[in-house]
Structure formats: structure tokens, C-alpha cells
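Whiteboard transcription, Tuesday session. T.W. wrote the C-alpha cells on the left side:
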């Protein structure tokens, strides 16, 4: 990779190889990770959904770059910092500093921004107060489950006690219920806005898919309707059996093979009323089935097995070209490859076409 050109983001406007770009970032070996592993007792996610609980370790550990480590200065006990981050007051403060720019509305707090989040200055506490704060925090860590503000309205008793003690240190006349109400409102509003945005995007995509599918279906429909199966695939004077299911919007079709014949059963999709239950030679049964899979409701089927076989041979030579045109149009559509299957499914629905009509023989169940 060393001689491969670096992307613009990496080369900051200059034309560099990947090796040159990474060497500029420092480090002993150009290909080695630049981030130096750190051990810490307290780690935090770089993005939050509805749970702000930090990761607390009695013995300092190193995690990967998906987390921020938090360490105290001036010889402070790490548990003091962990206690502050555990509190609901930190959650509310973080919500005011974060940026919901990530997927699904996740709240992102940049590494450089984290030290700016406003919290109680534990350096101003007396030694007995520091001891009490650690005691309250350890009580939370040992007794409480992580607070999920998307599900619960208020935290467990031990976290409430920690929050109340910290709030008292601020000397502000504000109730815990007001704090919790503000946190719940802020967190859930952020998630709701993100979901609304995602739904807007999905709605736009659905509209695009439907519009493209309809335009493709209009073209393919002309090709498909240029010949009516099975009438157009046999001689005009061939003896036929008429079928009419036009009174039903939906049909349940079952075709079961029995030696050289097949049983065809057709029910009304809404009432389950049996409209047809009969046994035919296999070629005739397949003509009936394929006509229905093509979306037809009124058609005439040859009453001779040999004539039905001729219709099926002619159909097998013609129908694949229609499907190829449909699939090619879907592949080259404006919505891109990501939505190919959605566009294809929408086209088939618009055409009342079941792809199983192109199979040599169809047996089983279908909703048409």
C-alpha cells in the first residue's frame, strides 16, 4: 500500500502516497497505529443514545479508540471524576454540549469538547465531602443498573441520592424531578427528531422507487400486452375452453401434479369460495396456471393437450425476452443497485406478474 496515492482527506491538498501521508503523522513505523494505548479506570463512549453510563474499572485497563478515557489531574482520586460522570447532572450537561450528527440521532461529544462539559469542580470539596462523594458513587456502581432515559423516567434510589447530594453542593433551588424531566425531554426529543428524519428519507426513497417502477412497468406492459397468452400462441381456429375470473380481485391458486395430469383449484382470495376445482392433462393445466400468473382473468385455453403444448413452447420462446427487458431496466434505473430488488418487486406488482410464470412448469400455491 505504501505507493498507493492517498485520498484527498489524508493528503490535505498535496499529492502524496499513503506512506508519505502516514509518515507525516509521526510515529516510529509509518504503518503502525498512531494512537498510543492508555490505561484508565473510567471510560466513556464517544457517542450516546439514551444511556450515558460510563465504564468503570477498579483496575485500570486499555480500550480501543471507540471510547474516551477520563483521568484526573493534580493527584485527585479517579473515583471523584467517575462519580461526577455517573450522575444525572452530567447527562443533562452533556446533552447541552453534544452534537446529534451521527446515525440514528446519537449524541456525539468530541474528545476535545469533553473537558468543556460543565460539572461540579471536585477540587473545591473538602476531604470529608470527597469521601462522601466516593461513598455515594460506589453505592451506585454496586447497586444500580445503568440508567436508560429512553425507557425509564427516573433512576434508582442510589443514583437519586448521588444526584441530590451533588445538586445540594450547587446551592440552587431546583428539584430532582425537574432535572429528570429535563433529561427525559431532551434525550427523547433528540431521538424523535432523528427518527422523523429517517422516516422522511425512507418516504422519499419509497416515492422514488414507486415512480421508477411505474415508468419501467409502463414500458414492459406494452411489450407484454402486445400478445395475449394463450390465444396469440395457437392457431385462431383451435378449439378452446373459456375461463372468466374477472369478478375476483384476488385469487388463491393451487396446482397439484397427478401422474400425467394435474389438479387445478382456484379460490376467491377474500371469501375462500372455490371457483374451479378440476383435473386436466398437464399441458392444459399449465396453460391455465401461466395465464393466471401473468395477471389475466379472462382467457381461452386449448382443449387439446398437443395444442396446449404448442402454446407453451411458443410462450417459452417469447416470455424470457420480456423478463430480460424488465430486469435490464431495473438494473439501469436511476435509484441505483441498492434498491434493485425493491424496484423489481414494485414492477411485478404493477404488472400483476408472477415471475414463476417463466418456469418450465409451476406446481404449488400462488396468490394472484
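and on the right, the sequence the group agreed on:
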Amino acid at each position: 500500500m505504501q505507493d498507493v496515492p492517498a485520498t484527498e482527506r489524508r493528503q490535505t491538498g498535496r499529492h502524496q502516497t499513503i506512506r508519505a501521508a502516514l509518515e507525516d503523522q509521526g510515529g516510529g513505523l509509518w504503518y503502525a497505529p498512531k494512537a498510543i494505548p492508555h490505561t484508565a479506570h473510567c471510560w466513556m463512549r464517544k457517542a450516546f443514545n439514551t444511556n450515558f453510563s460510563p465504564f468503570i474499572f477498579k483496575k485500570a485497563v486499555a480500550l480501543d479508540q471507540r471510547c474516551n478515557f477520563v483521568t484526573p489531574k493534580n493527584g485527585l482520586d479517579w473515583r471523584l471524576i467517575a462519580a461526577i460522570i455517573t450522575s444525572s447532572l452530567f447527562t443533562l450537561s452533556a446533552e447541552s454540549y453534544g452534537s446529534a450528527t451521527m446515525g440514528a440521532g446519537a449524541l456525539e461529544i468530541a474528545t476535545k469538547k469533553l473537558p468543556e462539559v460543565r460539572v461540579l469542580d471536585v477540587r473545591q470539596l473538602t476531604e470529608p465531602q470527597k469521601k462522601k462523594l466516593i461513598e455515594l458513587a460506589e453505592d451506585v456502581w454496586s447497586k444500580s443498573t445503568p440508567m436508560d432515559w429512553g425507557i425509564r423516567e427516573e433512576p434508582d434510589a442510589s443514583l437519586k441520592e448521588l444526584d441530590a447530594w451533588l445538586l445540594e453542593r450547587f446551592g440552587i433551588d431546583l428539584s430532582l424531578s425537574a432535572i429528570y424531566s429535563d433529561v427525559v425531554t431532551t434525550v427523547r426529543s433528540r431521538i424523535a427528531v432523528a427518527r422523523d428524519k429517517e422516516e422522511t428519507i425512507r418516504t422519499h426513497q419509497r416515492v422514488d422507487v414507486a415512480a421508477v417502477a411505474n415508468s419501467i412497468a409502463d414500458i414492459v406492459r406494452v411489450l407484454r400486452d402486445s400478445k395475449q397468452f394463450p390465444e396469440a400462441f395457437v392457431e385462431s381456429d383451435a378449439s378452446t375452453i373459456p375461463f372468466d375470473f374477472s369478478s375476483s380481485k384476488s385469487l388463491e391458486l393451487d396446482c397439484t401434479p397427478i401422474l400425467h395430469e394435474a389438479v387445478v383449484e382456484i379460490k376467491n382470495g377474500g371469501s375462500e369460495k372455490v371457483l374451479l376445482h378440476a383435473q386436466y392433462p398437464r399441458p392444459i393445466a399449465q396453460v391455465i396456471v401461466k395465464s393466471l400468473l401473468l395477471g389475466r382473468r379472462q382467457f381461452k385455453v386449448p382443449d387439446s393437450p398437443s395444442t396446449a403444448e404448442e402454446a407453451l413452447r411458443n410462450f417459452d420462446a417469447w416470455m424470457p425476452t420480456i423478463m430480460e427487458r424488465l430486469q435490464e431496466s431495473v438494473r439501469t434505473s436511476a435509484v441505483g443497485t441498492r434498491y434493485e430488488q425493491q424496484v423489481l418487486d414494485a414492477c411485478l406488482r404493477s404488472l400483476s406478474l408472477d415471475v414463476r410464470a417463466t418456469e418450465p412448469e409451476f406446481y404449488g400455491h400462488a396468490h394472484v
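Someone added at the bottom: The two ends are 55 Å apart (CA to CA).
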